[in-house]
Design brief:
This protein is mainly alpha-helical. The chain has three domains: 3-68, no CATH class; 77-152, no CATH class; 164-222, no CATH class. It contains eleven helices and six strands. Helix 2 packs across helix 3 (59-65), helix 9 (181-191) crosses helix 10 (193-201) and helix 9 packs antiparallel against helix 11 (212-222). It is elongated and about 70 Å long. The protein starts with a strand and ends with a helix.
Length: 224
Amino acid sequence: MQYVLDRRYPIETEEQLVKAAEYFDKNISRFSPEDRIKIAGKLDKRSAELGVNLDSGRDWIINYTRMDKSASLSPDFKSSMNMRKEACIRRKVEILAGNDKISAESFVDGIMKCAANVTPKELMLAVFDFDKKAGLEYLYDREILDPVLTVFGSLNNPEFDAVKIAGDATQYDLVRASRDHEKLSSLKEKFGEEFTTKFKSNPIKSIEKLGSVEKEILSSITKK
């Protein structure tokens, strides 16, 4: 039996997977950012195995699985960090540095300045560390975004790193299509069973040898 988290929330069957996803749609805020990564990752992996498209309308799954799929920094990073700065100013938060105390907003500025010189994952860990020192963890989902969303996610546009790789179809369109039985059936009619099997297993890699005309056909199927 497969579970989402700590032998809870079974996802062995398609019915159980959908039921679990619906539960987390309503209750994801009850879980820590670390558990949200595990939850989204497990749901995403199992949805690929079962051929079930869970992405539609579930931006949180896209946001919390981006860390393992892309190194793109959120376009909302600066605004999310400024929300932290404002929260620190309101609470007059100070951080102990050696024997001195300095304003927490100075630390926020420091993290923002180093963003271009470290990996997004290192940046996320720095934000986690800062939030713990500043006592901001209890503000997640209320006044500030958690470190994962701050660095890797976007509430405004969760597919901010989408790139057209087959006509007008993005990597997100292809992944969704690989878990859509109706679209897979259409692909089988146009491209044959062998290609469709490869596409279902790895939608991005499977299109590497397709020509521009074939990619346009693929795009018309995956985006309809």
